[in-house]
Every structure is written in C-alpha cells, then in structure tokens.
Amino acid sequence: MAAQSIGVFTIAFPDPTTLSHSNNDLVTLPPTVSFRLSLENNIRTLSTNGVSKGSTPHGLLYVPSLQSDDCKDIEKQHVPNNVTRVDDLPHNMGYSLVAFAPWLKQPKCIQQYLASARNQPTKAFIVYQPGNSTDVPPPMNDPSWGLGDGGSWKRANPFPVYAISSIYGAIVMKELKLYSGNVTEAPYGNTLLSIYNPSSPTDYIRLWATVNTGSGTELPSLWVFLVIVLGLLIAIVGATSFFMHLVQRRRRNDLRQRIVNGEVDLEALGIKRLTVPREYLEQMPLHTYVPRCEPSEVEKEGVPDDPRTSPPDTSSAVRADTGLKTPAPLPSNAHASADMAPPAPSAFSQPTCPICLDDFEPSATQVRELPCRHIFHPDCVDTFLLSNSSLCPMCKTSVLPAGSCPAKITNVMVRRERMIRRMRERSTANQGSTGGQTGHSPVFTSSHPWPLGSIRSHIGGAIRQPRRVFSAPERSTAVPVPMEMGRVDDVNRALDEEARPATAGATQTSTIQQADTRSHCEEETAHIPNRREWARLRALALLGHGQAPFVDVEEGEADRRPAWRRGLRRMFPGFR
Amino acid sequence: MSAGAKKRIMREYGECMADMPPGMKINFDEKNMTEWEIHMDGPEDSMYAGGHFLLKIMFPSEYPFKPPVVSFKTKIYHPNVSNDDKGSMCLGLLRPDEWKPPNKVVSVLRLIQTLLTEPNADDAIEPSIANEYKENRKEFEKNAKDWVKRYAK
C-alpha cells in the first residue's frame, strides 16, 4: 500500500545482551531533546511488496552495507562514515529494521543495498535521491528509478520501498550519524544519557522509522468506492424496476378483470380502438326489415316513436364520462325476448340506414341488428365494425359481448384508464362539495374560468338539466329542425325524454338535438380541467392529421418517442 | 374512400342543393368530392353582415363515421373559430365523439350559420375572444365588424 506518512523518531531501549528487559522498556524520546521528523507529503511509494493494507512497517533505521569497493567509494559522497549500520544495532534479537540509503546513480550499488537489506529482517526500505530538492520524488515509473532490469527489482524484494525528498534524506542521514553509537555528539546527548540511559552505557539510543500506509478507517481507494456506488445504484434501479413491473402487472390484471366484468369499456373511454372479430359479428342477428308501424304511417314526417319500444340504449349505455356501464337491466333477457319472437323479427324504429341514408325497404332489406338494437345495412356497418370500431355508430355502445377483452392489455392502456378514473373521482368530489348549488342555477363568474366551469358543466351533465347551446331563447324557434333529421332525432329525443323527467318543455324540443349534443359534450369534457385548451388542442389535432384525434395509443406514443425514452419506459413501466 | 361514402356524399350534395340555407353557395368538384368549398354571406342579423366568407368542408376517408372537418379560409373574429391560418371549428356535432353517422352536412351548415349569429362562448376555441364576447360585447362587435371589413369584403 502507498505510504501516507513516514515518521522518524529517536528511541531509547536497553541493551538486550546485558539486560533481559522486555520491549516495553522502549522509550520514545521527546522531540525537544532529540530528533524527530514526520513526513506526510513528500513521499513516493516505489514498491508495495510485503505490506498489507493498514499495516505500518516499522523498525530501527539503518544503512545497509555495500559489497564492492567502487560502490563504497561512491557511497562516501553521501553517507558519513559512522552512520547506523547493522553492526550498531543489537544482533539477532529479532528487532525489525527499516533500511535507509541514498539512491546512487549506479544500479549495481542499489542492487547491493537491496541484497544487503534482504539478508536482514528489513520491513521497509526508504531511499532518497541525493540533492537539495524539497520536491516530491519522481513518480514510480520515472526512469531515474530504473535499475536496468525493467523494474523487476520492485517485485523482487520482500519489503516495500519508499522514496522521500532529497533534503529530508540528507537530514535523516546526518541524524543517523549522530544516533549511531555513543550519543554524546548529538544535541543534548549528555542529557539524554543521564535521563534515559542511566543503567548501562551500552544501552541504545537509535532512530526508529514508522511508515504509515493509511489507517483502516480511511476510505478505500476511489475505484472501490465508485464500484460500490455503482453497484448500489444498479441495485436500487433494479429493485425499482422490478417493483414497478410488479405493480404494473397487478394493474394490468386488475384492468383485465374489470373489463371482463364489464365495468370498463376501453373504446368508450378512448383508450384503445377495438374492432369486432368476424365470429362476433356473425352472431349479431340479420333480419328482414319490418317497419314498426303500419306502412301507411311510415311517412316522411317521422312519427314520434314510443319511448318504451325504442332501443334501450340509455339504460345499458356506457356513460361517456366514466366509461362505466351502468348495470343494464338484464340486457341478455331483453335480447332473448327479441330472439324469442321469431319468425317475425321485432319491429324496428329506424326507417333509414343512418350510414348511407337509404330507406330500408319493408320486407325486402336485410338489416344487421346490433345488441343495442340499432339496425343498419350489413354492407354499411360490417366493414366499420370489422376494421374501425367496436362501438355502435349511433349510441356508442360497445357491441362486443360482455366479458370480451382484448388479448393484450398494455401499460399505456392501464395508465390512461387510471388517469380517467382519477379525473372522474376528482370531479365527483367537486360535485359533492358543491352539491348545494345544484338547486339554483350557478352564476358563471369569469374570475375562476375553468374550475367553476367544469363543476358547473358536470353538474349540468349529471342532473341532465335541459340546456341550450345558444343563449338567446328566441333563436330556438327560429331554427327549424331539418325534416330528414327529424326521424332519427325522434329516436334520440325519445331516449332523452325517457331519461329526463317531464321537464322537457315546448321550447326546447326544437333545440333538443343541439342541447343533447351539448350536454354530451360537457359530460365528456367535464373531467378535463382546462376544457378550452383541450378543445383547442383537439381541434388542432383534428386538422393536423386530417382525421379524428383518436390516436391508437400504442403505435402513436411509441413512434414519437426517442429510443432512450422507450427503453426507459420498458425498464420502468408506469414511468411518464 | 369507399364507394358507399362517395355515394353518401353525392346524396348529401343533392340534399344540400335542394335545401340550401340562405346565403350559401357550394362549389362542388366531382373529381375531388371530399373537399367542398362553401361561399357564405354573413347572416344579416349578425355582426358579420356584409361579409363574404370562404369555408372548406373536408370529408375524412372514414366519413360518415367520422365528422367532416370545417375550416374558415377567410379570417373571422369569432370565439369558436381558431384564429390561425387553419381557421378550424370544432364543437357540437362536429366533435369526433359527438358525431353520429345520421348527421348531415345540411345540419352542419345550419350550425355554422347559427354560430355566426350566436357565438357559443362557453365552448370556445379562442378563450380571449370568448371572454370579450361575454364581458365586453361592444368591443367584440367592433372587432368582429372590423375584421369583416378587413378580411371578408
């Protein structure tokens, strides 16, 4: 491990050959009277062999001896004669040692230092490049540290090698000379002797070095830290993703269950465009058209239909704003009774096909009857149901049998449905809180344009107050209802009057078609907070695409998103 | 566009010609029957009196299951007509979710005419104009007439 700091102390300990004192007698001398050096910054770690993390190699400081004479000659320039050598330390007592040497220019001499250190219980080797620099020694892979062996010396020794800056190296070397034998030459030498070495003149006062390679509490290296953080992040992301998948899966199953139970109609909510499979379509009865009234009465004027025999679509209709099917009063029974009246099929109230506007010919035209009892030419409605929609073009009731469910419930569908449900709940809450206002007509104040507006419109939709599109009442008589529309309107009107108590007055019958449209509008849009903005967007979308803004959510959203958002969405379903 | 839809548009054109709302004229092109040009005079009892407006009615390929798209080619100061180069109009029975196949172009034309006389400020596409209509009718009428002079002469 890299050295964090190197400390050099002066210590005193008894001569183990004369006294059998334990190592506890080892005394660190105070810095006031002895040498002490602490290096923290100007250290370079050259080799980390034989030292583990957190350990602190330490030992008595000495200068290893050289073998060859030429090296000894060179050494003399840097190393004083009487520095601490192995011979100046207690022999074979198992004291750990720290070698100290100048980094001579000749690789051969350095190899001799290292070899010499290997023969001793050396725990660390501290070197310095001779000179006067106080800078950090050059880095580990600097050529000046090369010994011509390709750097293998760094691995060949059982001890770590550290370098300190030149000036400190020279200082320590000088002190090694002072504290190598008799300390009388050292500053305060006599004081030291008298205080710490009273028993025997052969007791030792020497330099001791400790290399601190970082404490255990210190953070591990940056890379380990990063890996841990990364791992944690991945774990969190993975757990979140898994959790969201789980939640989303539960929601999908929940939605499927509710669709099967008939509580939710995806297409009526505008969530998913469904089509009718051919086998369902073929189950819908084909009849020969029989006019409901006597042929003489089927006139162009359009006879007002009896509400009771008109299609029961209000009772089983899907509410436009909620998408919830109000529990139909036994629709299967109603259908069964219609089926039980063969051979003459039940009479039909629609005299024309609403799609092509052609009249049905009595006893000649084949008509397709949808479960909501609206009839059409099979040619007109079949392609529509097979390829465009599963809703009756007239009353927007789903023609799919109860319990049918699209094969794949996607997360987008779940999200849409939840959003619609939340908005519905919110508007229900609003309605509840302002329920007292329903009696007197609320005044529209423009200071709160939309909240009041939406509440008001919702209330209007909910209690089905007859409302006019146009504010001036006289217009209602000025606008005549078109003749042709009268007949189909009659159906609508009948339905409306069925649902509506006897509030329908004479003036509003002429505008009832518009009024009906209007209240539907409001029901539909009551859950959208900013209705105007919404209307505007819809209009723009309508023009932009040249068709209705019924975007099939899967394709529509997926195509517009960049790849990374799609990936994100796949990883975190439910993420917006 | 299916043959049925074409037949229906032809039929509706015939009905429109037979029962044309006053002040309207339809430019019908046999080759491109899904796009009608309507020339309309501003109703006499409205602030648009004296103006001549050009409208387009586009029939989507899913017609009559989808509503026709109405747009004002002449700029008009009206809460229900978008104030941009599209001049779109989307309310009432023109809404995709309100549209029913039995609705006819004649009723669409009548709706447009009625809206010129009586703008529907509660269902506006231009909120600022709608506000002005509700709160400052004089200013609204002045602006509307101004625009008629500027764009619809």
Summarize the SSE layout with pairings.
The complex is a heterodimer of chains A (576) and B (153).
Chain A: E1 5-13, E2 27-28, E3 37-39, E4 43-47, E5 58-62, H1 69-76, E6 97-102, H2 107-118, E7 122-128, H3 153-156, E8 161-164, H4 166-178, H5 189-196, E9 204-212, H6 222-260, H7 278-283, E10 286-288, H8 313-316, H9 331-339, E11 366-369, E12 375-376, H10 378-387, H11 411-433, H12 449-463, H13 474-478, H14 483-499, H15 506-510, H16 512-525, H17 531-545, H18 553-560, H19 563-571
Parallel strand pairs in A: 5-6, 6-7, 7-8
Antiparallel strand pairs in A: 1-2, 1-3, 1-9, 4-8, 5-9, 10-11, 11-12
Helix pairs in contact in A: 12-16
Chain B: H1 3-18, E1 24-27, E2 35-41, E3 52-58, E4 69-72, E5 88-89, H2 105-117, H3 127-135, H4 137-151
Antiparallel strand pairs in B: 1-2, 2-3, 3-4, 4-5
Helix pairs in contact in B: 3-4
Domain UBC core (chain B): 4-153
InterPro entries (chain B): UBC, UBQ-conjugating_enzyme/RWD
EC number (chain B): 2.3.2.23
Concise overview:
The complex is a heterodimer of chains A (576) and B (153). With 576 residues, chain A is of the alpha+beta class. Chain A is 39% helix and 10% strand.
What would you note in describing this structure?
The complex is a heterodimer of chains A (576) and B (153). Chain A is an alpha+beta fold and 576 residues long. Chain A has helices at residues 69-76, 107-118, 153-156, 166-178, 189-196, 222-260, 278-283, 313-316, 331-339, 378-387, 411-433, 449-463, 474-478, 483-499, 506-510, 512-525, 531-545, 553-560, 563-571; strands spanning 5-13, 27-28, 37-39, 43-47, 58-62, 97-102, 122-128, 161-164, 204-212, 286-288, 366-369, 375-376. Chain A has a domain at 5-218. In chain B, helix 3 (127-135) crosses helix 4 (137-151). Chain B is globular and about 50 Å long. Chain B has helices spanning 3-18, 105-117, 127-135, 137-151, and strands spanning 24-27, 35-41, 52-58, 69-72, 88-89. In chain B, a hairpin with a 7-residue loop joins strand 1 (24-27) and strand 2 (35-41). The longest helix of chain B has 16 residues, at 3-18. At the A-B interface, helix 10, helix 12, helix 14, helix 16 and helix 17 of A face helix 1, strand 5, helix 2 and helix 3 of B. Chain B: Residues 4-153 form the UBC core domain. Chain B: GO terms for molecular function: ATP binding; ubiquitin conjugating enzyme activity.
